[in-house]
Amino acid sequence: MNKFSAQNTNKLYVVLTSLVPLLLVYLPKTPISGSQFIIYPLLALLFSSIIFWISIKKKLFIVFKVKFLIVLFLLYDLILVISFLINTNELRSTAPLELFRPLLLVIFLLYGYSIARLGNKNSLEEGLLIAAYTIILGQFILGVFQALGLNYFSVLYSAEKSREFGLIFRVTGSLGNPNNMAWVVSNSAMIVSFLGHKNKKLYWLFLMIAFIVVVMSSSRTIILLFPLMIISSIFLASKSNYKNLRALIIIGLFISISIFLIFVLGSQYFPYLSQLKLVVKSGNLMSINSFSLRVIHWENVYQEFSSAGLLREFFGLGSRQIVRTVDNDFLYILYRVGWVGLSIHLFISLYSFIIFQKSKVKNIAAIGRHYLFFALVFGLVAETLASWYQPLLLFFILGLNIGCSEKSKKILKFSNLHSQIQPSQIYFKNIS
Asked: Quick check: pTM over 0.90?
């Protein structure tokens, strides 16, 4: 392969990597109910086609880790089927479509694995970084338009939950939900923290923009998580952790002062964020209206779950209307597919974390590990890994990590084998 061809191949894998986060964020999300059930099959068809094209180009060997994860997803899907069967009379009309979600996760896992086996690590990291920059900048631009009440993009992206600058202010970007937008931007900033060190000016500029977007979202949970996500990722990404301690202290002070000023000076414009002051004063999370409503809903669902009988405690309540939204990842899984389903879900999360933890592919593994950890934390007040959208990127990154690791092992094995060949062996082989 000549140099020009190699460069084109590398660019191809940059595009194939960036495709996943960009499509997940920027595919149209209209106010039409059930539109997600059109988008996700289209994504499945697209990435399945690319997997098929890659498999034709080069035969791929699926390693045990990927096979085992696929078995776990299929097992979870089986539990979902059982749960739906024992709750047939009370299922929502969209319930059968939910059986497709574990299969979608398998496709994203295989897609990440496939492109990682053929592309080089630098191309994959560049693709993730370009996607992160594009997401942060794009959400900022959309947020500014929504803040000014200029909903030119509302045909493509629902702005129903956004509020222009005034008495109540929050924006939703292209995600249609302020919490989802803040989560996506925070994770994009985390990717920049791990991969964007080569251009320091761009690095700090985009971290600043990301913080502004998170504040514009008025997401209380992400406002609190954002400093932890960024400071921990900068610390872990640094080759000399203690050398950058001063920079981390400055970042921490800047974010703390900014949040304080928002609470003190801008509480009338950020009423959702200003509710955090009530928590500080009362020392009780129930001071936040949305949290107290969550607790009431959790209690109501628990009453129905605990009184539904032993079989439903094992396999859940299925897709009933009462568990349509629970605002807690763990309770959402428990109430829908019972203790059996929750056990499988937690085991998949644990197994994924172990894979990231043991990986030699430093940056991609660190991104995946951070994403998984903070998804579990954010999952205390929202559906994260149990949702349609958020686990797709996680298992794509997991596929990238496994593929890169296996490719590195293969290269190392070949290198060791080559180094063991004695010069005399090569000489006799040539003259024969």
From this structure: no
